[in-house]
């Protein structure tokens, strides 16, 4: 189903039109925790998603003005030194390494059931609006492949994005089909919105679930920016010294996604993500014929 979202700017009062592809993930919830399949495809007792010198879990996000900046995060093992990313205008030929700009990465350690990892991130700044760039990220004496993306326009224009509900359960088994078909239907999507419960986080195999989420999206996550919201399944219960409990955001969240601290007030269509128990209100209009 595709509908249009009309958002009004103030100032100026200009209307933008965005077409939205809805990719529903209900099939994953139907089959999860049934007798037919486990919540992940990783065999019990097997370590499939251990970090290595080869960069993985590459994901493109926004951390500032999407017309002039972009952010990327990725994972390696803890032996990697001098993590960095390179970016260049997307040339037609293979000489990207001759014109690239190198940006040093910030890193944070995270140890989970699959071992100790470093999660790295950079923000590319000073980019040109509506321009295709290529980038790659470093590992241990190696690089990722070159990814590419287009910056947003700095003027009012039509764009499309894809909205995903809960990936959450049996992620690689089912969400992989959903995200790949959604992109096949909307290959020019400017971004993807993941509206919470990206993983289940209730089976003590959180890193396997996140590994499957990144497996399902694959290279697409490195080329189409993601807007991510933390759902209730991205929060864990922690017992306090007085015996009470509090909800804490998954330790995977901040290391995996480089996100803006606050929103811009002068943007065209604003995507606001939050974790609330009250329903959100959206105003929709159908796109013109």
Automatic annotation (TrEMBL):
Keywords carried by this UniProt record: Signal
Signal peptide: 1-32
SUPFAM superfamilies: Metallo-dependent phosphatases, Purple acid phosphatase, N-terminal domain
The keyword Iron-sulfur is assigned to this record: no
Ranges of residues in domain Purple acid phosphatase N-terminal: 55-151
Family annotation (InterPro entries): Calcineurin-like_PHP, FN3_dom, Metallo-depent_PP-like, PAPs_N, Purple_acid_Pase-like_N
Coiled coil: none
All residue ranges annotated as the Calcineurin-like phosphoesterase domain in the record: 175-253
A GO MF label: acid phosphatase activity
Gene3D superfamilies: 3.60.21.10, Purple acid phosphatase-like, N-terminal
Protein's UniProt name: Purple acid phosphatase N-terminal domain-containing protein
């Amino acid at each position: 189903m595709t509908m249009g979202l009309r958002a009004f700017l103030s100032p100026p009062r200009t209307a933008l039109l965005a077409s939205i592809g809805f990719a529903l993930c209900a099939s994953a919830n139907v089959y999860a925790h049934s007798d037919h399949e486990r919540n992940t495809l990783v065999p019990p007792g097997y370590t499939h998603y251990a970090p290595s010198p080869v960069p993985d879990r590459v994901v493109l996000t926004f951390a500032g003005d999407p017309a002039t900046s972009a952010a990327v995060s990725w994972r390696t093992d803890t032996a990697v030194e001098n993590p960095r990313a390179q970016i260049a205008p997307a040339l037609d030929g293979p000489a990207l390494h001759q014109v690239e700009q190198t940006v040093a990465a910030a890193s944070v350690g995270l140890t989970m059931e699959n071992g100790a990892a470093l999660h790295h991130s950079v923000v590319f700044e000073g980019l040109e609006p509506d321009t295709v760039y290529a980038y790659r990220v470093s590992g241990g004496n190696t690089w990722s492949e070159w990814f590419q993306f287009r910056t947003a326009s700095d003027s009012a224009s039509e764009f499309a994005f894809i909205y995903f509900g809960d990936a959450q359960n049996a992620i690689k088994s089912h969400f992989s089909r959903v995200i790949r078909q959604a992109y096949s239907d909307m290959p020019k999507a400017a971004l993807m919105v993941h509206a919470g419960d990206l993983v289940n986080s209730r089976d003590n195999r959180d890193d396997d679930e996140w590994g499957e989420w990144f497996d399902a999206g694959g290279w697409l996550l490195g080329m189409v920016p993601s807007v991510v919201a933390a759902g209730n399944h991205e929060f864990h219960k922690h017992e306090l010294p007085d015996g009470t409990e509090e909800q804490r955001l998954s330790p995977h969240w901040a290391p995996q996604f480089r996100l803006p601290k606050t929103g811009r007030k002068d943007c065209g269509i604003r995507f606001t993500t939050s974790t609330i128990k009250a329903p959100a209100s959206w105003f929709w209009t159908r796109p013109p014929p």
